[in-house]
Amino acid sequence: MKIVILAAGIGSRLGNPFPKPLTPLNSGKTIMQNQVDNLSACFNADDINLIVGFKKELIMEEFPDLTYIYNPVFDQTNTSKSLLRGLKKCKGNGVLWLNGDVVFEEKVLDKLKPYIDKDESFVAVNNSAVAEEEVKYTVNENGYINEISKTVKNALGEAVGINYISSNDVNTLIAYLEKCGDNDYFERGIEMAIEANELQILPVNISEFMCMEVDFEEDLKAVNKMIDNK
User: Fold this and answer.
1) 21 contact partners, CB below 8 Å, separation of at least 6
2) Are 188 and 147 in contact (CB under 8 A)?
3) What is the reported pTM?
4) According to DSSP H, which parts of the chain are helical?
5) Helix (H) or strand (E) segment spanning residue 196
6) Tens of pLDDT, residues 203-228
7) In this predicted model, what pLDDT tens digit does every residue of 4-48 receive, in sequence order?
8) Which residues of 63-74 are buried (b: 16+ CB within 10 A; e: fewer)?
């Protein structure tokens, strides 16, 4: 199993002059340090690959021992193309991938590890919140994801930005990410593969744990409040 963290974006909505994954938290760690520490506690740190772009040197200086994959068109493409680069590099393996702005506690990975051990493709979801800006989902009659995007209606919950593609499914997802437009999120590739009946993705509910994407200043305040209350 390989791990890919998508950390190439500019993160303009938060307004930092540095990459969003380097945003400091009240815990004393950055978002990226929180991710790397939790991942390293559960998996092999040598398997962590960072997709970088915007001010990549700052991230590389902070984490010199990780493996890097550069997206030179980070300012012209969205997460579908960053993930595509990561999956191609890790081809032949199951891949756990995270958005570079997700703050989560280690217990989230404990919940997800059995599915990884079974090599079962999944999207981690929070069913206690369905925010307008977030990626939302519905399921089919068999309990697998049917729709996944920001425009889903009557959603059951929202994706939290932690996902796994099995070693059997990785080539399929690569093929559909290649069909995505430059500005598509990676969820579009997943959705197209589902529509073609070529991919089954299980939603795994992690609502009981702290796990939140930091897109705006309000998100950062909410995350820090959760950290302070721990």
Assistant:
1) 5, 7, 30, 31, 32, 35, 59, 100, 101
2) no
3) 0.95
4) 31-42, 56-62, 79-89, 106-117, 170-179, 186-195, 217-228
5) none
6) 999 999 999 999 899 999 999 999 99
7) 999 999 888 887 889 999 999 999 999 999 999 999 999 988 899
8) beebbebebeeb
DSSP SS3 for 195? helix
Cα separation, 123 vs 140, in Å, equals 15
Direct distance between the N- and C-terminal alpha carbons of the chain, in angstroms, rounded to an integer: 31
Q: In 132-175, which ranges are E strands?
A: 136-139, 145-149, 157-165
Output the six-digit token pair for 196: 């073609």
Q: What is the pLDDT of residues 116-147, one digit of tens each?
A: 999 999 999 999 978 888 899 999 999 999 99
Dmax over Cα atoms in the chain, in whole Å? 48
Cα 177 from Cα 84, distance rounded (Å): 6
Show the tokens assigned to 113.
Answer: 């590890």
